[in-house]
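tool=predict chain=A
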Amino acid sequence: MSAQPQDIWRLYPMAPSHLPQVLEIERAAYAYPWTEGIFDDCLRVGYSAWVVTNTLGEVQAYALMSMAVGEAHVLNICVAPEQQRRGLASFLLRHLIMVARAAGVTLMLLEVRKSNKGAQKLYDGFGFKKIGERRSYYPALDGREDALVLALELIGA
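tool=predict ok
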């Protein structure tokens, strides 16, 4: 089966014009989605923010990362539910690592829900290691859920 034109991925810096589609994906993918204000703030302060679109310009996935003083913090990687398990998260994470390395970052950090085994497998495949836990970090149906804190050293890589 050959790829259709709409199956080809294009990577762009996230712009305010992407936010309606980003918010639609965010709300479809998460029980406790980020607000428009959070995305606005991330763009306003200049975080590394990216979208992947198909050739029709439809956002399929996005990622945001902050960088300061040699460290990067992956804030959000999200793939539209109907596009999951196609490699988009890996594509975005690989890009974030490249951006971080180019900026001289030596350590990448992120939090992941303790229950999110799929994301943990993704990060493990890139060499992220557990360095701690944040108790009651995420909202959950039964109150709060712990987060695993993962790190990836970029020195010499």
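Residues 88-102 form the longest helix (15 residues). The first strand starts at residue 10 and ends at 13.
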